[in-house]
Amino acid sequence: MKKKINLKVGNSVIVKPNVKDLDLEIDIGGWQGRISEIYYKSNTICLDWDSITLKNLPNSIIEKCEKQGWKWHQKYLELTNVELANPRDTKEDVAGVIDEIRRKTKKPKKELLILGGKKWHLKLHQGFYLPYTPSISGSILVLIGLILLCLIQILRVGLDLRRWDFLLLSGTATLAFGIWRVQGIEKKLENTLTLLFNRGTLITTPAKLKVFQINLKTQANVWARRSSLIAGTAMLIAFLDAYLKPPVKLGHVVLTFLEVVGAYIAGRYLGQMAYYGFLKLMLPRNQIGLKVKPEHPDGVSGLKPIGNFYFSQAMITALPAVFLFVWWLIIPFFPQYQTWRRPYLGLLAVAIAYEILAFVLPLWLFHEEMAKQKQALLEEADIWSYKIDEIRNQLEIAKTSEECEILKERLSVLTKRYLDIEQMFTWPVDIQTIIKFASTNATLSIPLFIDLAQLIQNITSKTSTS
């Protein structure tokens, strides 16, 4: 009889012969490392390669992993693909080799600013580059623009704030704040999916989840590029509507260019978040299941992390809509901005559309799945209701206190399960959040309703006149 081997976290194991790495398309038989995580439900482990394996990693493998966003120092494998082995080094040896490889493969960070997917160099003087991280480069660019705009205002009209262009300045400040708030959205989604997996609400393997996260990032970038063109085009149309009347001034042309660039940058982030709104539809396509847990203490069947993620997206995508709504209201008090009132109405419609894609649509898709699973669980609840009645009848004729205690315990468990299913909420966010979001967006939509009412009134008047 074959002896069963119980693997534990920290065990040194070796990959069995002829095991293939499907991502790297190589044979990894004989590679050795330590188990850092075990997933019993999916029968998989996370294996951290030891220092000897890492030293023998070809540079081509490391470069491919870096390019694809994979971790070259660890691998997810099935339990059946490894067996126990004697350790060949220490964890300190592993850490030292990883640091050495990272130093060798680290590239000098000379690209500073990311604009629409392109890399720009900001060279302060010969041989010196401004330190940066790509995640904040967009914010740095917009903040620099805001500072320059303030300096231009001072040079043009001095410190007389009444003559400053607050529409332009507030728009630039809103863009800078939005870019700052959106930083780390990819990592936030990655953590959300990992948390759902650990809770057991995402049914998959660690390897499939990792591939899914990489595919999400790739496709989100495609949407970001398309969205940047949509946002830039919408802003260009708005400017043409506001300024395409003779005489056309050079200042208007320059301002149009700057605003279109700003919309292009914002559109990338908005497109990325809009794509994340289709997450629920992508799960089954990637063979990832979703399982609600009515008994989960978060109150939304274990899906609160995804609700929180989408709510954070809503707070970011709401910024353009709030900006446009506020200025639509106060433009009548600024005669110099009157030409912008109608174009801002069109831009407001675009902004609300992004909000719907980033928050309303994903919530509805998850709601449909939760409602579907609740319907199936209600059939289970009906069975529990019959058993609850049976136990109550048995309690009436129970002869010993021990028998009564056992029956009461069973009754308590079944009653809780029944109530969890019966009272299960079918939205991934609480009702207060839904009401708050709905009321806020109803308010933001008021200008659109007013314009629609005026349009209907004009059409009715023309029809009656004819």
Provide structural commentary:
The protein is an alpha+beta fold. The chain folds into three domains: 12-105; 108-164, no CATH class; 185-466, no CATH class. It is 64% helix and 10% strand. The protein contains 14 helices and 13 strands. It has helices at residues 51-55, 59-68, 91-105, 134-157, 166-182, 185-199, 206-243, 250-276, 279-285, 304-330, 341-397, 401-422, 431-444, 446-465, and strands at 12-15, 20-21, 26-27, 32-39, 44-49, 74-78, 82-84, 113-115, 118-120, 123-125, 128-129, 202-203, 289-290. The strands form five sheets. The chain has a five-stranded antiparallel sheet. A two-stranded antiparallel ribbon has the order 2-3. Strands 8-9 form a two-stranded antiparallel sheet. Strand 10 (123-125) and strand 11 form a beta hairpin. Helix 6 packs antiparallel against helix 10 (304-330), helix 7 runs antiparallel to helix 8 (250-276) and helix 11 packs antiparallel against helix 12 (401-422). 26% of the residues are buried.
Overall structural domain count = 3
**Helix content, binned percent:** 55-70%
Give the terminus-to-terminus CA distance: 96 Å
Counting H and I runs of at least 4 residues, what is the number of helices? 14
Q: Which outline best applies?
A: flat
Question: What is the mean pLDDT?
Answer: 81
The total beta strand count reads 13
> What share of residues are in beta strands?
5-15%
Flag low-confidence runs. Answer: 108-136
Class inferred from helices and paired strands = alpha+beta
Rg over C-alpha atoms, rounded to the nearest angstrom = 29 Å
Adjacency order of strands in the biggest sheet: 6-5-4-1-7
Write the element-wise H/E pattern from the N-terminal end onward.
Answer: EEEEEHHEEHEEEEHHHEHHHEHHHHH
Report the major sheet.
5 strands, antiparallel
